[in-house]
Amino acid sequence: MESDMLTAPTRTLLPLIARGRSLAVRLSAIVLVAMLSPGMAIAEDAMPASDETPLEPIVVGTPERIEVFPTSFKLDTVRRRLHPIVTGYYADGKVQDLTRAAEIVAENPEFVRIEEGVVTPVADGVTKLIVRVGGHEAAIPIEVSHQQSPDPVSFQYGALVALSKQDCNSGACHGSPSGKGGFRLSLRAYDPVLDTLTLVRESANRRTNVEEPEASLLLRKPLMEVAGG
């Protein structure tokens, strides 16, 4: 994401998205970015990272053949990503996931970037992913497009989903008919218009503070800087 695409509020919030002390904090920051900069795209590397779990090593052996899924793909937005799945088939009938053991390279790195098996678009064009493992090789056609077009974060399908994921709008919390602590959301985000008014306009604009985003209650409560309701 280019720095000149960021407004002052989003520059303030992106560090919280990337390195927030809890998932709730990071999700709250994503909600605020979506509301404060509705035309801005959030890069995937700024999204909450899952905790790393040690994985067992893969013994590749000698597969008879490999399959790669999907067999072709279109990266048609700036936030679209691809993580190919590589499967090995063996003579004894065994089937094994070889994704982590596979070498994945771009035929033309001008169009895509590959990091830890995840394919990220770089520029419009057509290329192939070359997958190698167990003495076999496969190619996946990749079409990259619309890399100069904004990919807005959706309030309804991004911000409200983040709140739903944390059960903020569940019946036991702010989604109850009377809300909780003076803060009411529609149950499971069924009324996004009401939720917009509640989050942006109510409580003297303190829940979403456009002038001072870091002071927004939507961030301060998950950070335990003020009492939650």
Give an account of the 3D structure.
This protein is of the alpha+beta class. The chain has two domains: 3-40 and 152-220, no CATH class; 65-144, Immunoglobulin-like (Sandwich). It has helices at 8-19, 23-36, 155-165, 192-200, 217-220, and strands spanning 65-69, 73-75, 85-89, 95-97, 103-106, 112-115, 118-121, 125-133, 136-144. The chain has a four-stranded mixed beta sheet, with no helix packed on it. Strands 1-3-4 form a three-stranded antiparallel beta sheet, with no helix packed on it. The chain has a two-stranded antiparallel sheet with strand order 6-7. Helix 1 (8-19) packs antiparallel against helix 2 (23-36).
Mean pLDDT figure: 81
Please count the helical segments: 5
Major sheet strand order: 2-9-8-5
Range of strand content: 15-25%
Number of beta strands: 9
Give me the Rg, rounded.
Answer: 22 Å
Spans where pLDDT lies below 50 across 5 or more residues: 1-7, 38-48
Largest sheet: 4 strands, mixed
- Identify the overall geometry: elongated
- What's the order of the H and E elements? HHEEEEEEEEEHHH
What percentage of residues falls in helices of 4 or more residues?
A: 10-25%
What class do helices, strands and sheet pairing give? alpha+beta
Total number of domains: 2
Termini separation? 35 Å
